[in-house]
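WP5 quarterly update. Target: AraC-like DNA-binding protein. Source organism: Cohnella lupini. Length: 274 aa.
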Amino acid sequence: MNTSSFPLVTEKDLQLPLYLTSIGHWESQERTRRPAGFPDFQWLQVLSGTGELRIGDRLFTVKPGQGFFLFPREQHLYNPVTEPWDVHWIAFNGSLITPLLRQVGISQSGVHQVFAPDNLIMQMKNLYATSISGHPFLGMECSKQLYAFLLDLTRSIWMSATSSSPDPMKLHPVTQYIEENCHRPVTIAELADRIGVSSQYLCHLFKITLNMRPMEYVNRERIHKSKEWMFREPTLKIQEIAARVGFDNPSYFSSVFRKLEGVSPERFKKSHGM
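Structure tokens (predicted):
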């Protein structure tokens, strides 16, 4: 069934970092030509059939399991090749979109393979239902669901970017091991052994997946644990906290804490009433 919704966008909604402008579904998407582009960002997810997308001199084929981003005010044309071309679409805007897309290297309109497209379509259906629900805080509710959808969408695109992309869940045994053992000295080789890879490949996995080195992650976990100790036992001295979370040198602990939190451990405790 063809559906479309154009929820009311108030002046207050326009101040949200993300807001929904339209959403819908075409069982048989027709030829669409926009010489002046479209005012908002769009994502179109293909359920079945095949289509073509033309953006300037670039021509793409769009198949099931794929979708395409359209950036605002960019001339484009898309049309079915194998009918029916079943397409779910969503249009949105806001200041948070560009940083979200930049995380997965998307800076222009184009076609992308996605991981678990059925999940994305289900989220779009849920968002459509919300958009016509008459919710008293419709803009905020749609913004909340749109944020979750875009996070899942960008993750799905990243996971499907190339066949050689590492599985982000491969690091789970390592991060779990760090959480359980960061109170004592740990080495990169020790962490690499948890998943049977070399130290060099572990560093590569961390860089690709989390954009940091393994020992950076260890220190972040230690600082996280130190804040838990501050709340759990407010009378502990800073040097005692440092020792409990795996820092031999209290000065180094304070330096890392300040770098990550922007304040010293002492100031952090005071600002939280400890």
